[in-house]
Amino acid sequence: MSSPLPPAARSVPGENKLQHVQRLLDVLRTDLDEKNLSSSERAATLEKLKVYGRDPKQCDPIFSKEGIETIGEHGFVDGSDCPAAREALRCLANALLLVPRTRQIFVDLGFPVKAAAKFANASVDDEFLLARLMLLITYGTTVDLESLLSEQKLEQSIDEALARHAKTYSGDEKARSPSAMDEMALSETLKLVFNLSHFVKDREDLFIKSVPHLLAILRGRELPPFPLQPPITFVINALINMDLSASKDDAFPPSDPLCNVRRLVEILDKSIDANLGFPASTSWDENGAPLITLLRRIVQTPEEEVKSYLKKQLLPSEEERNQPLGKGTSLAARLLQQSNSASSPNTRESVSYLLFELSNSNVQEFILNVGYGYASGFLVSHNIPIPTETFQADAAASSASKPINPITGQTLESEQAAADPFEGKTEEEKEREAERLFVLFERHGNTPIPLFYRFTRRLVSRAWANLRPRSRLKKTGVVKVKNPVEQAVEEGRFQELDD
């Protein structure tokens, strides 16, 4: 139960919210000089001010320079670790969050230096509040972050805080579940780490000592059914801006170089639903891109064992080539589905980049790994030229144990053994498939027709009879359309190739 307000701070009849807020601040300002409030009265007054400050309406005195200064002086009293100081920090956190202009006021009053100093050995409750305050002032202020990191030893204080959190997930303390406040404090500190490493550009070694703590948290935390949620997402974000090559023995320990990469692949695997082939949550598209980006950073390191493992896990296997790629439920198949998913605009580009880099950034290898159907959009949108020899049968066979169709990624022998795709279909269904191929040829109009046709001619020949006389676009009479294949035949550009 909250302590009663001191008599001078209690509401009086007829007084509105604005007047009461001003009187609470007057009481707190007087207390800074006269120390006439008890600890419990001071805490109660600040708590009342905090409740008022949750709604900015009629709270202008809180957001003025005098208001921020008064509350800040109570929050950063030297050597303080008491409920009153904590209530003052909560008031400040609300003010800086709700009214952005107060952030520069906070900086101008010199409070960031006091916040950085107080962060050292802070309790979990104070860590949460101090990390949030410093996070907020990284936006739209003139704060000198480099000075806070070096002169105020903020980098060291954050590293020590992360070390304390890491102990919760390892050793003798692993059995103890972190409290809700532990989780909140960790999340705020991780967000602060990301912002500092993002805005302080000239420090490549920034937080490099914290890498083992971040990885310990990543490995030790139990994964929920959908892992991409705080604090796991914040750990991944924090690692993105760090040079893992500079912390090689921590990122890829000699005793088990794959321990951290396996964890990231496990998180990726659990984040995409295996049955549907679509994200298990809409949060995938919001939080999946940082995970893919981190995996790309790992691919770019010189660790060959790690890259070989990622290729094995994320690129289609030989067994998957018994059918067109992307049709199964393996992680590799689901990644391919994400690479052109309309429901995942944020992640599909990142996934394509990852698969391209796993293919050694080689166009021909990329197409043979994932199939031209999945590779074409990425290559065309980035103006990457496609070698003509990519579509030749000899090239298709050179990188695989069996010749494959570079369009679908399926082995040619499996393709030949497949049943007629038009068997058992109604005329309407055949017509729809024919129109789908019409669009396909339009989309890939720049691909040499003989080469493209070589690997799709069985489907085209079956659809051709349906497309030419029965196209619903022609039947409407509104527009005249001509299939690119039909046009190529008439112009003498179409060439039948031997098997």
TrEMBL record:
Compositional bias ranges of the Polar residues kind: 402-414
Keywords, in A-Z order: Chaperone, Guanine-nucleotide releasing factor
GO terms of biological process kind: G protein-coupled receptor signaling pathway
GO molecular function, one term: guanyl-nucleotide exchange factor activity
Region annotation Disordered: where it falls in the sequence: 402-428
GO cellular component: cytoplasm
InterPro entries, A to Z: Gua_nucleotide_exch_fac_Ric8 (IPR019318)
Membrane-spanning segments: none
Entry's family note: Belongs to the synembryn family.
Annotated protein name in UniProt: Guanine nucleotide exchange factor
Lineage of producing organism: Eukaryota, Fungi, Dikarya, Ascomycota, Pezizomycotina
